[in-house]
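In the lab's daily routine, each protein ends up as an entry in a very long ledger. A line of letters takes care of the sequence, but it says nothing directly about the fold. The three-dimensional part falls to structure tokens, numbers that each stand for a local backbone shape. The outcome of that step, for a single protein, is printed below.
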Amino acid sequence: MKVDTGTAAPITSYTEQYFKYLALRPVNKSLHAYAGMPLGIAGQVLVDVEYNSQHLSQSLLIVQAEREGN
């Protein structure tokens, strides 16, 4: 995955093969792309994250798009 410190929330595409097996939990948020177009949020999953020797559990929003930013 990529690290993007400019996003409002961590997101990935629903078609991402690594997350297809996880059950989606409901989300009470709405997000918009940079140009103002609303993102279709399918749900969220809880993932374990490791970066620079730091570990945490993080909610990851799954959007209904072919790729991030679409």
